Amino acid sequence: MNNIKKRFAITLGTNIVKAFLGFLVGMLLARGLGAEDYGRFSFLLATFLSFTSLLDMGTSSAFFTFISKSKQSKEFYFSYFLWIALQFIVSVIFLYFIIPEKLLHTLFVGESRGYITLAFIAVFFQQAVWNLLSQLSESSRDTVSIQKLNLGIGICNFLAVFFLYQTHNLNVVFVLSLIITQYILALIIFKALIFEASKVVDANIKDNLFSIFKRFRIYCGPLVLYSWVGFGYQFFDVWMLQHYSGAEDQAYFAVSSKIAAVSLIFTTSIIRVFWKEIGAAENENDKQKVYLLYKTATRTFYTLSAILCGFLLPWAKDIISVLLGDGYESAAVPFSIMLLYPVHQSLGQINGTMFYAIEEIKAHVKISIIIMFLSVAISYLLLSDQSGFISGLSLGAEGLALKMVGMQWLSVNIGMFVISKIKGWKFDWFYQVYILGTMLGLGYFAYYIVNQLDLNFYILFVLAGLIYIILLLGVLYLFSKQLLNMKRTTIKLRLKLIFSP
Q: Rounded to two decimals, what is the model's pTM?
């Protein structure tokens, strides 16, 4: 148990530092590249992020599941490594040599073939290759080593980007090349200093290609359609924004999403612990514990996300101005909208975990596919212009932000409704209204109070934060049951455990 706690604490700490460094890098890139180039950069990264998920088709999840249960044969690892290599080689050949110029121009909105291929290589190393290294380490419980390497990558990336920014040499090609170089070095370090084959390979097991393929086919079969629809959903959002509104709107949406996503760090770090606890309670048929875990998790994480949103939303315009400068004034509105997105995204993560833990994957996939199809249609109406098959509203980054928040709300509540029906619970949704409303009310009240003073932004921001925290603590104490599904005595006990030596 202590080992699990240690691994979780290390992962959480590393994720917080890495997220902070990633946030700083994102802001440096946005300022240094300018809205036009940062938009192009963000478009290609988002496109290939969805493309690598399509190539994967759930095989990485299957791989991690298999190696987490027990050691595997040499043939098993060789087959999977070959699969990763084939994804990379075939994709590079297709992008650089085969795909027709006209189709390339349409799909990537005028970007050059070399630039596109470089972006794919960067994303593939950052996602597929790094995921493989992490899975190999986690399966052998070597969390500390891989998190040290992870943190090292984050620090080196920040220092390199900061140097390029300070010397006015920041450009997209340098940044993509930097990503590739970092992960190649990480791969070399992992092979030389971290990876021990004996920890994950059982030399006594003999496999053949057919049996290995069959195991992956059984696991990944239900996820193939989901992967294809997910790719289309992610790709068409960024493509339509780039095609109809241009690179600058892409940049406004990208920076808005990056800043707003900071509040998800705690949910992301704790979600596997929640999964394990729900799964254990489900196996023991402890219905009351499952209900209490789900209710407490949804209330707590929704409240935590709403707290950050409630404080930041009144300051949206000022935050964009301070972080990004004059070239991003138009990002203030999409940023304001996107601050609402993580509030329900935290619930979405919990719902997804709940579906997997109670083994209702088909229901989760069906809901997700329906929502994704509907989402693409709404994106078209909001983003397309008068020249389209159906005349759209040309709302740009604001339209995409509205769609993201609206569809997230719909998806989350449908998921909660289905989970409630499956488990025989009452569908509880109204807390979403009064929790978010309360936090926004406190945030705007603090904002109004401090803006009566003639002081600079930083002092006003800190003063507002202090007022907000005082008001927040009072509200949480008085309404702990409604907001966190905890009694006051429980809160006191947990605070005592946290701060006790």
A: 0.85
